[in-house]
Design a protein that fits this description.
By secondary structure, this protein is of the alpha+beta class. The protein has seven helices and 14 strands. The protein has helices at 3-18, 37-43, 61-68, 98-108, 139-148, 173-186, 226-232; strands at residues 22-26, 31-35, 70-78, 81-90, 94-96, 111-119, 121-123, 135-137, 160-167, 194-202, 209-217, 237-239, 242-245, 251-252. The chain is globular, with a radius of gyration of 23 Å.
Length: 256
């Protein structure tokens, strides 16, 4: 029996003897899978590797793709109600020089109405049981509040307004939708433009942070392609002093 077989057999035996509970709890909004502490510790106890195996490079193959990928959830807003409708995965995000982005926006009739950055905060109240001693700040909500402090007037002919959120892997769509509702309610947009949102999670953006960039556009892409087309549609993300977007050509699927 090889060393790898011995390791695999040992792991299975330990897992079988250690698992004490496994349950799936479902409610209307969430599904939770729960295992006992014993089962988790058994599964993490041993990592098998062939004696002559090459060093694993996490930047290669599917793991590397996952690390580089950006996950985008997009949807539409009706009054204060925003609904997620589509999920896409991109191989990468593309950084754009602000001068280039501004030139494209000028030619296509786009403008940035406002942008803001937010950071998550949880202040443990300790032994206090008073509600006011507990502080919870959600990054998307804080980003929306910051953006609303410096809003430019939307062009009179703006047909579309896009709310672009960007954050790390821990960005939560429920919190983004709440922030969308806040923006839709307080931006006081004239002309009733169609409002959509993008929420993008990217490994290279810090956890517990979120930015929002609100862009007004006329819907004219003028035959542009790639990054230029995305910007002309109003998809532009300001994050940590830099500007980003995604291109249709970078969309990837499980089959690619």
């Amino acid at each position: 029996m090889t060393k790898l077989s011995i390791v695999a057999a040992t792991t299975v035996a330990l897992a079988a003897s250690s698992v004490s509970s496994f349950s799936v709890t479902t409610n209307p909004s969430t599904t939770h899978i729960t295992t006992s502490r014993a089962s988790s510790s058994a599964l993490n106890l041993i990592k098998g590797e062939a004696v002559d195996a090459e060093t694993f490079d996490e930047n290669e193959g599917g793991v590397g793709l996952a690390l580089r990928s950006a996950i985008k959830i997009s949807g539409k807003c009706q009054k204060e109600q925003c609904d997620a409708q589509e999920l896409l995965r991109y191989e990468k995000m593309q950084e754009v020089e602000m001068g280039v982005a501004q030139s494209i926006m000028d030619k296509s009739g786009c403008s940035v109405l406002c942008s803001g950055m937010g950071k998550e905060l949880y202040q443990d109240p300790g032994s206090s049981i008073r509600y006011e001693d507990k502080v919870v700040l959600l990054a998307p909500i804080e980003a929306a509040k910051a953006a609303l402090e410096k809003v430019s007037a939307a062009p009179a002919d703006a047909k579309y307004v896009t709310l672009n959120f960007a954050g790390g892997d821990d960005l939560i769509i429920g919190e983004v939708l709440e922030a969308c509702g806040m923006l839709v309610n307080e931006l006081n947009l004239e002309g009733k433009p169609k409002i959509s949102f993008n929420s993008i999670s990217f490994n290279q953006f810090a956890d517990e942070t979120c930015s929002v960039t609100v862009v007004a556009s006329g819907g004219n892409t003028g035959g542009l392609e790639g990054v230029d087309e995305s910007i002309a549609r109003g998809e532009l993300y300001a994050y940590d002093g830099k500007w980003f977007t995604v291109a249709e050509g970078d969309i990837t699927t499980a089959e690619k």
